[in-house]
Amino acid sequence: MEVGTSYNSFQEFKEDFDRYCKQNYVQYTITDSKSLKKVTGKKEKHFDEKFVYRCIKYQCKHSSRNKKKAKKSNHGLRVNQRTFDMGCPAELYASIDKATNTFKILRHVTEHNHELSSDVYKQYPEQRRSLGESLKKTTETMLKLGVKVKVLQEHLKTTENHFITVNDLHNMKRKMLFKNNESHTEERIFLNQLEEIIQDDPGASISVKCCENGALQVLLLATAEMKEHFNLHPEVLFVDSTYCANKLQLPLYTFLIEDGSGHGRPVGYCFVADETNLTIQTVYEEFGKIYDFSKLKVVILDKDLSEIAIVRTQLPDVSVQLCKFRVLEALDREVRKLAFSEDVEAKLITTCRQLVYAKTEASYNEKLTVLTQIAPPEFLNYFYRYWGSSKEYWAAYLTNSVVNLGNTLNNRTESHNNKIKDILNRSSVAEAIKGLMLLHKSKVPAGKHENDVFSNHVDKNLTSNEAELVFVELKAARENPQSINEQNCMCTIRKTNLLPCRHVFATRISNGEEVFREDDVSSRWHNSCPTKRKSTQIRTVAADAEIDIETQIKRRRPNTSTKKGKFKEALTKFREIADFMSLQGMQDFDEKMETVKQLYVFWLAGQNAAVIPIDDVLQSVTDELVIQHDEDIVNSVLLE
């Protein structure tokens, strides 16, 4: 932008000026200007409105500007404010040229006394806050969902290459809240949110119960889609509560079911004022008014025995099961609390696990006998008081006799609740309700089975379409494995899709065999099948020899020259290691884990380390001993 350059309008000048600033990584601000609105009304000073300004002066962001000192009465400019002032002389002055009727650059100083770079340019407030319409809309949506500003800041930096500070995002969030909630009380906002749910989803059900003093006691939400999910898959209901989901500290109960694809789907959210028996009873009563429990078979809870009594009262024909992980967690905690020796502690923990997962009554009684022989009296008193009389809720040989679709854990609701806490993060009740609805609309599944090798292999190895078909067959097999006989199998899926059917799974479940085998599924359905690999044989003759040249299209390797690429490469390999480690026995797992930890210690210390097979080390030591032994014999002979 040279001095004397003319433009037909201010818009044309501004576009060229913005382009210049972006290309040279400079940030200018308007320090002086005369708007045409102020000068047009004066005598003989009529200008075309396309110029906007009679004259305008831009100075570098780091220039020194003439500022009046603040008065002691605190009027005027605020003192002790941070600025970009570095005394930079760069400036640009443009004005309307009457002779040519154009907008002309009259002065342009291009010298700067500071660094000009892309990194510095991106961190100016004007650039940080300039997101663009599309990116701004996406960012506002993520803020509405309750995404943590630190996570959102990192996301914008890595995926959009846009730098923005945490304060900028907080200001954007406050501006959105002020715009939406201006002149509204919190109660009015709460009611508006409930009305909005009903308007958007007429089939939704909202149940609100208050105490005698008018305070909120129970708030139950269920959308039309949630109802549809429950009506299609009503056999098993998962229930769990979470905290820190709103600033009023109201506990949030989440209700989930398992759909035909093995995913957990929420079918209800409920805020409660407290967790007394009366309140929990009200929750199940209101839940029963929305849903038909006639087809419900099992309710899986966390570990609250008092809640079991309420469920048994409200749903007398439904079996209740406790999450086995929480049962074992409670038993392990009691073992460690009583401070036994390490040997006794290890034996008690192992026996308790065998007791919980015993597949037959005879096996259960056998492990119970072992427990009574090795456990001190204080632990036996605890076990019989809290667990011995309620084994139908947690013992595998009893829980496996009812339809639970293979679920023994409550990890679905816990996983879903973790997502909820990440999104809500101590928001108001109205904001929490809005966040829950946004989360539900985003259709984030609560996870598939995580308690058997079968599901892990299916998720990892099979294509998504074939995995869905296999999960449907698994569900049918888990519902009633005793009534399915493999000899009477007439399923076409084995021939048409080369996939195992429900009869295969049912037989293995009944026999206590491994549910999944890699050779069950044709290699064409495995993710490792090289469908994207192309090979072309090119035969050429050179020096009387035939050379086969094979060209391949391989999967693109992450760019390890960047931090993100290195992270992806390392994470891929460590996931493979974690999958392998999870299949090891306890002793092998501890040994291999110790090796990994020691390797990490060396790396942290800045030392390189090499891994050598133990067999090679033992062989090397043996060879050295043999050589040393032979040398001793030779020396003794020479001495004689």
Helix content: 40-55%
Unreliable residue runs: 67-73, 447-453, 531-556, 633-640
| Shape, per Cα inertia axes | elongated
Largest sheet, strands/sense/barrel: 7 strands, mixed
Number of strands: 14
Structural class: alpha+beta
Helix segment tally: 25
Strand numbers in spatial order across the main sheet: 6-7-10-9-8-11-12
Mean of all residue-level pLDDT scores: 76
Oligomer: single chain
What does this structure look like?
By secondary structure, the chain is an alpha+beta fold. 47% of the residues lie in helices and 14% in strands. The chain is built from 25 helices and 14 strands. The strands form three sheets. Strands 6-7-10-9-8-11-12 form a seven-stranded mixed beta sheet, sandwiched between helices.
Relevant terms:
640 residues; 25 helices; disordered C terminus; alpha+beta; 7-stranded mixed beta sheet; 47% helix; 5-stranded antiparallel beta sheet
